């Protein structure tokens, strides 16, 4: 029996901080997005500013300006010294336009598309249908509406470039020569792999407007001779010859059945001894977290028919398709790679 106070009401066994974190987090995280849209991080990239200077440059009153900068400071995006606010290293790396790992475009599209609405999420949950393009399939929309495909591709590049520069360091690709970046979007991961492994060439397979954007990014890194693009329907068209198949943020877009289809198709088309790599944010095997991955999983309700997987779930898919030497490897932040090898001598 729990002890009771004088009125016979049990005292709480835990405090309510988690609940406040949830509710106030909604306000606080939106404040960061607003600060980004107003140009706070761009402003501070030129040097520290006092609150008064921030108000003048952003043309907002002191009280809301302070509310925004304090929200950013509390999260570690800003520092404060001698009466001036400055960018913390994470903001310099990811929230200043011009950085190769600029994340701001991911913020921009989320805001512009109206993703962050309770109504959209409610509709998605009640109907089990994506809402971003009015319940239309995301890929069909991108195929028919080229500009939307280009905007989406730039958004994905924004959140892909940092992990794309990290995962090639944790797996030995020295024996591989041709990487297919299947549904490769902007080519960020092909760029990262080619920069790290100089004997590796890559081919990005995607829709026509997506490949146009990828060609721009590939050219900006001077990799046109080693990284190319090809317009291919990954569901119906054959895969070109290669000894490495790479998927990033692809499996989470589709049902498990479709993911098993892609896994089997890669096993069929990979060279004997070839490797498959799946790059995703993964749940713990017991699905207990992390919370950010659970949030990413919720976002899939709005965008696609897919879900986030655990490492054991993807490993089982690879094993069922015939892959061996299966490994789950943490790479960068919340990201992991799941890899497997097609046994030598296997031709299908």
CATH homologous superfamily grouping of the largest domain: Vaccinia Virus protein VP39
Structural class: alpha/beta
CATH class of the largest domain: Alpha Beta
Biggest β-sheet, characterized? Answer: 7 strands, mixed
Tell me the span between the first and last alpha carbons. Answer: 65 Å
Low-confidence stretches: none
- CATH domain fold name of the largest domain: Rossmann fold
Could you say how many structural domains there are in total? Answer: 2
In helices, the fraction of residues equals 40-55%
Widest beta sheet: strand line-up: 5-4-3-6-7-9-8
- Helices and strands, in order, run as HHHHEEHHHHHEHEHEEHEHHEE
**Average of per-residue pLDDT values:** 94
Any guess at the CATH architecture of the largest domain? 3-Layer(aba) Sandwich
- Strand content is 15-25%
Radius of gyration: 23 Å
Total number of helical segments?
14
- Based on Cα principal axes, name the global outline: globular
Overall strand count: 9
């Amino acid at each position: 029996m729990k002890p009771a106070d004088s009125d016979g009401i049990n005292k709480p066994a835990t405090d309510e901080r988690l609940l406040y974190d949830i509710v106030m987090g909604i306000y606080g995280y939106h404040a960061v997005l607003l600060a980004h849209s107003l140009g706070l991080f761009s402003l501070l990239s030129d040097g520290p500013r006092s609150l008064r200077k921030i108000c003048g440059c952003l043309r907002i009153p002191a009280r809301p300006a302070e509310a925004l900068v304090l929200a950013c400071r509390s999260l570690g995006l800003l520092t404060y010294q001698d009466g001036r606010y400055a960018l913390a290293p994470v903001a310099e790396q990811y929230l200043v336009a011009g950085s190769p790992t600029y994340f701001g475009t991911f913020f921009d599209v989320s805001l512009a598309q109206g993703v962050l609405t309770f109504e959209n999420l409610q509709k998605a949950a009640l109907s089990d249908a994506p809402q971003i393009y009015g319940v239309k399939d995301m890929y069909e929309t991108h195929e028919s509406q080229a500009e939307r495909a280009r905007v989406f591709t730039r958004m994905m590049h924004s959140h892909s470039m940092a992990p794309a520069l990290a995962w090639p360091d944790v797996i030995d690709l020295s024996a591989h020569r041709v990487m297919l970046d299947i549904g490769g979007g902007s080519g960020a991961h092909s760029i990262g792999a080619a920069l790290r492994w100089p004997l590796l060439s890559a081919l990005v397979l995607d829709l026509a407007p997506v490949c146009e954007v990828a060609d721009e990014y590939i050219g900006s890194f001077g990799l046109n001779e080693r990284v190319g693009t090809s317009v291919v329907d990954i569901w119906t068209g054959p895969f070109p010859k290669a000894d490495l198949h790479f998927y990033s943020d692809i499996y989470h877009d589709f049902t498990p059945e479709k993911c098993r289809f892609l896994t089997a198709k890669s096993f069929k088309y990979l060279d004997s001894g070839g490797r498959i790599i799946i790059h995703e944010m993964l749940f713990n095997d017991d699905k207990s977290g992390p919370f950010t991955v659970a949030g990413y999983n919720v976002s899939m309700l709005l965008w696609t028919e897919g879900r986030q997987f655990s490492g054991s779930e993807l490993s089982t898919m690879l094993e069922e398709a015939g892959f061996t030497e299966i490994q789950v490897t943490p790479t960068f932040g919340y990201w992991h790679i799941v890899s497997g090898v097609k046994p030598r001598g296997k031709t299908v």
